[in-house]
Amino acid sequence: MAQLLTGQVLSFAADPFAEGIAAARIETDGAVLVEGGVIRAVGPAARLRAAHPQVPVISHGRNLISAGFIDAHVHYPQTAIIASWGKRLIDWLNLYTFPEEMRFADPAYAAAIASRYFDLTLANGTTTVCSYCTIHPASVDAFFEQAQARGLRVLAGKTCMDRDTAPEGLRDTARSAHDDSARLIAKWHQLDRLSYVITPRFSPTSTPEQLEALGALWAANPDCLMQTHLSEQTDEIAWVKGLYPTDRDYLDTYERFGLVGPGAVFGHAIWLEDRERAKLLDMDCSLIHCPTSNTFIGSGLFDMGGLKAAGHRIGLATDTGGGSSFSMLRTMAAAYEVGQLKGRALHPAELWWLATQGSAQSLRMDDRIGTIAPGMEADLVVIDLESTPAIAQATSRAEDLWQALFPTIMMGDDRAIAATYIAGRRVGG
Fold it and tell me: Between 210 and which of 12, 124, 174, 320 could a Cys-Cys bridge form, CB atoms 3.0 to 4.6 Å apart?
């Protein structure tokens, strides 16, 4: 059934980092025509009402209608340990992450956490996520089953770890990592709105044999993405150098096994060397900025200004649960704060683009999701620009949409999510 959603409509025709705020398209009295889970038209509300007089109108008043948020790097198994106190990366893994991930050997526990995770992300207006699961195939099944039941477009993969730097209960082998992942690709990849991502956790927890096996798997399944971590903390880089002493740098531990190329998605990428920057750009890899995580566990400050100026493909992510929030609004706020510390204040248009179309581009899905345009899937979020008294008093002084939107970026939370639509179906708000 067709429906016409009215409100202020924000979309992007281009990257505002390259084109400035003119890349944004704003209909202050706009409408989005949705039918069959797809956006059929967007434009002035009066024109679309006149053209489609029989279509029911869902009015969102002066609220902002946007593409749904896209979280490009998460660990859904860490849902229950979010906001755990006081550890840096390696201690975080050993004290919090690995013990929690062992619990995902139980399919019922995995299903319960996956269900809770999607409840939390949908409440925050996030309509697509790209997640690491655990080494257990059942953790992948639970994630995709819960997503499929909700009609979501999501990406995920079995996390692979075979080195004794991971605990015994969370190790697979080079062979089982390859074979389990291959079976999961056959079972889930491109089923409904689901996509499989080949997922070595990172070089310190995989042997060269496992990375080689996963490189071969990716070569055999080039329509899958490959996700892993890169240069998150300086002590992690030192760890990698000790484990791979003959490699040129951290990226080289992936590069020599065929894990660097278009479709590679690298989380964090804070402490990159010049050679790594050049190779990542040349190979059109994606870099994912995880600002709340990077500050919460003391990793460092991502160079958004320098990397975007060079032309890198960049997305934005909560990195739940090292990241301290399920909200992409809070993540945008943290990206702004990190940018300030790096000397590059991000404009609200740039922040919103990163959380929508930028993340879609990083996941090679910008032909389907990430902005409002005819033919795109109707995953949408509706934002109340006056969701709290503090935000409302700031918005009342605004002279344009960006001034009205920025207080919600900096102070907003799930109360700002007036509605969420998945493939045109309202699921929240």
Answer: 174
- Closest by alpha carbon to 332, among 311, 346, 312? 346
Structure tokens at 347: 């404009």
Give CA torsion, residues 208, 210, 213, 219, to 10 deg: -80
109 CB neighbour count, 10 Å cutoff: 17
Is the separation of the CB atoms in 376 and 70 below 8 Å? no
Separation CA 45–CA 305 (nearest Å): 37
Token representation of residue 95: 């004290």
Contact 120, 414 (CB under 8 A): no
Is a pLDDT exceeding 80 seen at residue 86?
Answer: no
Contact 201, 165 (CB under 8 A): no
SS3 248: coil
Residue with tokens 């958004």: 304
pLDDT at 79 over 80: yes
Share of the chain above pLDDT 70, in %: 100
pTM exceeding the 0.90 threshold for the entire prediction: yes
Q: Which DSSP letter does residue 320 get?
A: T
